[in-house]
Design goal:
Layout (H helix, E strand, L loop, with lengths): L7 H12 L4 E2 L9 E12 L6 E7 L2 E6 L10 E5 L6 E6 L6 E7 L2 E6 L4 E6 L5 E6 L7 E3 L4 E4 L4 E5 L6 E6 L11 E7 L2 E6 L4 E5 L6 E6 L1 H10 L6 E7 L4 E6 L4 E9 L1
Parallel strand pairs: 1-14, 2-18
Antiparallel strand pairs: 2-21, 3-4, 4-5, 5-6, 7-8, 8-9, 9-10, 11-12, 12-13, 13-14, 15-16, 16-17, 17-18, 19-20, 20-21
Length: 270
């Protein structure tokens, strides 16, 4: 549903970081080629085919999912708590007005949810889903994750903003380049896994692994076989988007927009 990327957004991000005292972190040149990874499917779970998945989190036995959509679409923006084994929606709140929901994350018993072009982030109570507060930010909102201290936000460019969860101000920025020092654009849904940021790259079948300290590209996970199978099975299915990690069980879950399935995978080095 991202219709276009305004080139001015990159400039806004960089200027915004400087205004708030956060210098942009320029990644070092890769001295090693990023590793290539394949995958194997461990288990398949049901997933709501009407969920236009924008954010996915696993927390204490349940999935939490942020979905996108406007009033004119056949799907609507929401925040959900989902039973993993059945895909049953246990709790749900729909975004009001014409907000287009985007990435989510959980920190300190609060759920943070971005919006795409409305420059607004919502903060909910984890248990009740009651709205606690709102924040505003410049540019678009795409993906969101946390390292347990700060928030990490993507905006459709090659920039990841590190945010203070108390006020949503930018602490610093992470510039993500490939091994040729070219920007990796369209960074979308994010997940923090074992000290790395994993990112869906919109409209591709790749998840990339990023060093959050310097933006270095650590590896690429090729999921093209799976996305091709999904496309053959269901013409309504959209792009790969949604990464969740269970730290207690060391499990990785992935899905996509309007996919009927959610997959537990194991990542394998090629």
């Amino acid at each position: 549903m991202k219709l276009k990327l305004a080139s001015i957004l990159i400039l806004v991000n960089l200027l915004g970081a400087c205004e708030k005292g956060g210098e942009s972190k320029n990644p070092i040149r890769n001295t090693e080629k990023p590793r290539s990874y394949a995958y194997e499917i461990i288990r398949v779970y049901p997933h709501d085919p009407k969920a236009f998945t924008q954010g996915l989190v696993y927390h204490k036995g349940f999935l939490y999912e942020g979905t996108g959509g406007r009033k004119t679409d056949d799907f609507h923006s929401s925040l959900r708590k989902v039973e993993l084994e059945t895909g049953k929606i246990l709790q749900k709140v729909e975004l009001q007005g014409d907000y287009f929901g985007e990435g989510i994350t959980i920190l300190n018993d609060k759920i943070y949810q971005l919006t795409w072009q409305e420059n607004t982030a919502f903060v909910y109570d984890l248990q009740s889903f009651n709205l606690l507060k709102k924040f505003t930010y410049p540019g678009e909102g795409w993906g969101l994750t946390t390292d347990g201290i700060n928030l990490f936000m993507s905006d459709g460019t090659h920039i990841i903003r590190v945010l203070n969860p108390e006020n949503f101000e930018t602490i610093r920025t992470i510039v993500v380049l490939d091994e040729s020092r070219k920007p990796i654009m369209r960074l979308n849904e994010l997940e923090y896994i074992k000290g790395e940021i994993w990112a869906n790259v919109w409209q591709t079948s790749q998840i990339i692994r990023i060093d959050p300290s310097n933006g270095k590209l650590l590896g690429r996970i090729d999921l093209s076989k799976l996305t091709n199978e999904i496309a053959r099975e269901d013409k309504a299915a959209d792009v790969l988007n949604g990464i969740a990690y269970d730290p207690e069980g060391d499990r990785i879950f992935i899905t996509g927009k309007k996919w009927r399935k959610l997959f537990e995978i194991r990542v394998l080095e090629k």
